[in-house]
Amino acid sequence: MAELSTGRPNQFLRNISAKIAAIPLILTALVVFVGGTGWTVLYSFTDSKLLPRLRFVGLDQYYRLWNTPRWLVAVENLFIYGICMLVFSLVIGFLLATLLDQKIRFENTFRSILLYPFALSFIVTGLVWQWILNPDLGVQHVVRSLGWTSFSFDPLYTSSIVIYGVLVAALWQGTGLVMCLMLAGLRGIDEDIWKASRVDGIPAWRTYISIILPMMRPVLVTTLVIIAAGIVKVYDLVVAQTSGGPGISSEVPAKYVYEYMFRAQNLGQGFAASTMMLLSVAIIIVPWAYFEFGRRK
Fold first, then answer.
1. Cβ neighbours for 194, distance < 8 A, ≥ 6 positions apart
2. Cα–Cα distances in Å, from 248 out to 49, 69, 160, 245, 252?
3. Where do transmembrane segments lie in this chain (predicted)?
């Protein structure tokens, strides 16, 4: 008991300077993030308009939210955009990483070129791809000027496929980061594994699928979380490319929140939409945290 009682203070005082230095960060996280999140959820159950007010209306804001066609379109677009972004960015990024992992010449140059779009803001990317996909200036105009006058390609002006035009711009910007993360994971694989697979006569594609990818699980999980966070909060790319149009066909949840909180001056509805976005993030983060920490413990 004496050893136990004397050991506890020593354990508490260990790295005490680091713990004291972390206090401002912890307080900031509790007040700004946790407090702000709780405040948003609380006021999502009120009828706040221009200014927040504690007049509770129960689940009315959520009923109204899920009966609004604009919100349903935003959720549908986010689902389509999210699934395609996850699949294509992972596949393209991994393929590019495997190509660069072959120790090709000018690897640093190619890596810089592929990563360069990620250095641009979403606004710049959206404006660039708005010009590229413009039927009067971009791809359609160039192809028609070459003689194919019947060629038609205007995704940003077609309601049924406009979200795919946004997806193309997002892939162009984000795939380079995924490639770098995957390449870092591939460079962490022991070279002896490749030598053993060659000795056993295992094809390269089978080695990647059966051996390399399972060993890259931490990198894959981290990449998935980064991509998913970017998917949920996509806003400026849509605003720069389409402003939510044609009509509301490219609406996304983040833009819906902005419109209702700052333009329609309906804070209660904006808070309800924000809470649903928070819930979608929790659905992603909680399983990740469980698999990373819970199962390991």
1. 207
2. 23, 9, 11, 5, 9
3. 21-45, 78-101, 113-132, 161-186, 207-232, 271-291
Mean pLDDT per block of 10 residues along the chain (297 residues) reads 49 74 85 87 92 90 94 95 94 92 83 89 92 89 88 88 94 93 89 84 85 88 86 91 90 93 90 91 75 62
Q: Which residues of 265-296 are buried (b: 16+ CB within 10 A; e: fewer)?
A: ebbbbbbbbbbbbeebeeebeeeeeeeeeeee
**Residues whose CB is less than 8 angstroms from the CB of residue 127 and which lie 6 or more positions away in sequence, other chains included:** 240, 241
CATH 3.20.20.70 fits 58-294, yes or no: no
Are 184 and 219 in contact, with CB atoms under 8 Å apart?
yes
DSSP letter at 259?
Answer: I
Region at 187 (left for phi over 0; alpha for psi -120 to 50; beta for the rest): alpha
Reported pTM: 0.86
Q: Which of 125, 82, 76, 96 is nearest to 224 (CA)?
A: 82
> 160 near 240, Cβ under 8 Å?
no
Neighbour tally for 179: CB within 10 Å: 25
DSSP 119-159: GS-HHHHHHHHHHHT-TTTSHHHHHHHTT-TT----GGG-T
- Note whether 192 and 110 are within 8 A (CB): no
